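Q: I'm writing up a methods section and want to include an example of the input and output format. Could you take the sequence below and give the corresponding predicted structure tokens, formatted cleanly so I can copy it straight into the document?
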Amino acid sequence: MGLTPAIRCVTRLTGLIGLAQATDCVPLCSRPCATGIQVTLKQLLNMQDGLAFQEVYGYTNDPSRMLFESGDTAGYTRRQGMLPPARAQRWCYHSGATNLVSDMLRTSFAAAEDYLRYPWDAIFNPLGMDSAQFHLDSKGVFVGSSFAFASARDWARLGQLRLQNGSWGNTTLIAKSFFAEFAERLPASGQAYRSVGEWC
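A: Here is the clean output for your methods example:
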């Protein structure tokens, strides 16, 4: 099981189909952009989305409720609402953001079967990640925050893809420009963290 590797699977899949450039509003309510809430995919990828999801751990907490009680990881994250405006643009890691991105990936495919094949067609099979598994929630969304599994050797292949700027053998799987743009350090994090899962 890999938590950070799972998140990096989602961000690389996003980069593959060009969604990482999107500035469209993410639907946070029953209707897109209801009540004037504006959160973009890029803000989610950068962990600057202003959502009130609390990434804290204890007997009861948002990550556990999202993963083990709700059955709808993206829906649970949406229902947490927004932080006050003064706090909304700060860098704040939370696993719910990645599941919203995974849900957006799902809605970008016309057929559910294409979405379900996508991680294997796009990354796992080309890299030879034969042990890879990616679990779904009850809504059919890959749980990108947490439930991806692979052997240590196969996770190393995913890391090597990053070191090679998206190239594998003679094939470019992810455009080098994706890593170049999104590996910049984020001012909102005090220059401590990078974006889209490239935090270190």
